[in-house]
Amino acid sequence: MPITETHELHKRRLGRNVGVALSLVGFAAIVFGLTIAKIQEGASMEAFDHQPRVSITPLTEGGDQ
């Protein structure tokens, strides 16, 4: 026999689930927006990994590296 009447507990759970889902979607949107802003800014994407990189080493007085 199927349950046709929803209990008040189910309605409260649904409200909480919707709230958690909206929070998760909002967090994902913030992370996505920050990622897009970082890519569009054109900043250097090189991370510091303890390896010397020619593109970030300062120039010497002679102008050559």
UniProtKB/TrEMBL annotation:
Chain segments annotated as transmembrane: 20-37
Keyword set, alphabetical order: Membrane, Transmembrane, Transmembrane helix
Highest taxon, organism lineage: Bacteria
Entry protein name: Cytochrome C oxidase assembly protein
Native species: Roseicyclus elongatus DSM 19469
Origin organism lineage: Bacteria, Pseudomonadati, Pseudomonadota, Alphaproteobacteria, Rhodobacterales
